[in-house]
Amino acid sequence: MSDPTPPDHHPGPSVSEGHAVSEDDAVSEGHAVSDGPAVSEGPAVSEDHAVSEGSAATGAGASGVPEGGSSHVREEGRAAAAAGSAALRAAARDLVDVGILIHGAAAHATAALTDRAVLAALPRSLATGCLTQRALLRTVTHAEGLGYAITGSRLAALAAKAGAMAGAESLAVRVLATSLRLRITAVTLDHPELAADPMLGRLIQAAAEDRDLEALRSLRALLKDRGAVRTLSALAPVFGEVLALRALLDENPLNDATAWLIATGRGFATADPITGMSNRAVAVLDTGEGAARRVEPGVPLNDQGSLLAFLGNISALGTKGTVLIQSLEGPDGVVRHVVQAPGMRAGTPDNDSPQDLLGAFSSAVLDSSPYSRALARAVEDYDMPEGAEMALIGHSAGGAAIMNLAQDPGFCARHTVTHAVAVGAPIDFKKPADPRTWVASVTNQHDIIPTLDGQGAGGCFDLHPDWYVVDYFDATHLFPLCHSIEHYMANLADDLPEARATIDERLAPYRGRVVRSQAYLLFDRVPYPEGFPFLTVPTRGEGTAELPVRCQEGSAFTAYFAADAVAAAELLQGSGLGPAAGFGGRALVALHVAWNRRTSVGAYRELHLGVVLPDPWRRGWADLLRAADRRRSGWFTVASAVDRADVASMVARLWGGVPYELPMRVGLTGGAVNVSVGDLLSVRGRLGPWVPLGDRDLVGYARDGGTVLRSCVRTRGRGRAHPAPGVRLGVALRSHPLADAFRRLGLDGARPLLCLTSHARRTLTDVAVPVLIT
Predict the structure, then answer these.
(1) E strand or H helix at 138, and its extent?
(2) 145, 175, 291, 313: most buried by Cβ count inside 10 Å?
(3) Whole-prediction pTM value?
(4) Looking at residue 434, what DSSP letter applies?
């Protein structure tokens, strides 16, 4: 590996403030006994200082001494493990300084070797100059010197990368690799389960010795034996160190800078430590000025201020793209404000919410992101007095976003950010713009997310001496369970009472009655008006309904079956429509089920069974492919059902005929369909492979006395066509007109020829209109 030129910024001393343990394992009041963090038996935090904490719930605790031993033996074991861990971290920190000095010496030697003035003067004293140049060259390329340590200029950097690809190493790299191995060993003392696990030990050892093939085999064995979740959870405490060590020693020159940053603690990991892909190149894809819209929280909120109350609000809001701002009247009668930001929103990696996966990544990597900018928009809309005091509380991506807000000089010029509390968030390389802002960070050592900035349980650097850092572990090692806000709340409530009390004491000005609450839905950029432009249409009131019916969010399933042609012809008799579309002596019928989750008349489910018709005026199949406004073909509605009595009459006007009111269930997830209509019929099974297809408009015909009605449903959304579905329709034996219609067409036990699905769509439906057929 080559030696990347380190950035100018250096965080300072190596030891996180407050990671201090005396000889009898007692916590000192802000004076560090050693240079490295120490592990105490249980939660123990001093004011303004951070302590690495092992929860009492862990049983063996940090030392790994068996539960069956005497209390005195266990205490001695924990004290010995803590002292050993601190000594290893101190040594690792010293080696980092040595490695940086060696790298600096290599830079000076390379500069002297390539100095133009020196090279120009060579002819004047050729013998002496050549000997000097030879000595410099050996210094930066020979194993007996600084190893292959060419660094500095662009040409030198190129030579260094070429050497890295050839497997050459510098002395600085070997020193930093030793530092990382010491950090891994220190974590092993804190987490004896790492040493006790032979499979995990083989993986760590292979990575530490740059044996990629053996590391890959060990990883595959772990994944096969325990699955991805347990493997990732077990590796979490040493995840960053193992990746950095591998990046230091491998032949990929693209990840060298990141490995150097993680090993020296000089900055956020700028690239993926495995491939070397730039993190910022990915993060900048998350664009947008940020926007916020007022919404109702929709969940009960706490009416008193405290750490657990604020975290409880974040838990109640969930990861739905919303944040909360509250105003509280403190003990001194002053009204202050608290911004509460949840973590990543579930769903696609990049959607219109700044809380998506890409937004979470950019919040961690960048100093400003759409999430933090959307938070600023929410605060602006909240209209708090200029200079008003506020506290920022965030979990996961929300923790990174509130720290981005706290380090924005413009925001801090308008508002007084007194406190920033981040839980389970990667914020080690963020710094508030106002030095008076009190920062607390709470992280679980088995939680992967806080280590995404490259600093984890093996850290030996005191990046923020003035922060309050609670870095602990408990008996729950499974990720992502240990990352959930509920798990952090349980730890703070039950296992970390001193840490909770310290943070609450600092938040004392905010411990009062809530006088105002406002939730906001956040966006990457200002959203279009809801439903625009498709659902932006003139409306009219008819009775209690507003028409046309506009569905903002829904899903649908349509299945086409081969049915009894005689029965289909009988159902069409007298309508003037027909014959039915079909082939091979069978008629084609359609079953359409829709779950309209958010509409102008409320949520409802509907089912329609129809006989498919070609163009009633011009026989042919081509018309089936046209858009609804030009399509004459459709289906003749045989039977319909809805699950709400108050919309039954409206649906009758939309589709014609009188629908049956029946309870319905519509499930369309995981590549399967699960539909049930009362206890009359069911449609279940795997949908099978699919191809993309735009959601199709619907055209239906129905008979109302002597009149034929045409209905039209215009749709917008992405659809899928499933040409080989493994779905089966079942009809109950009990007598009901809906069940009778299915049985009459011979559909009991039938499998569809084709299924169409749409998981997210919008629809616009107006009343059916009479048409003249003959």
Answers:
(1) helix 126-141
(2) 313
(3) 0.69
(4) S
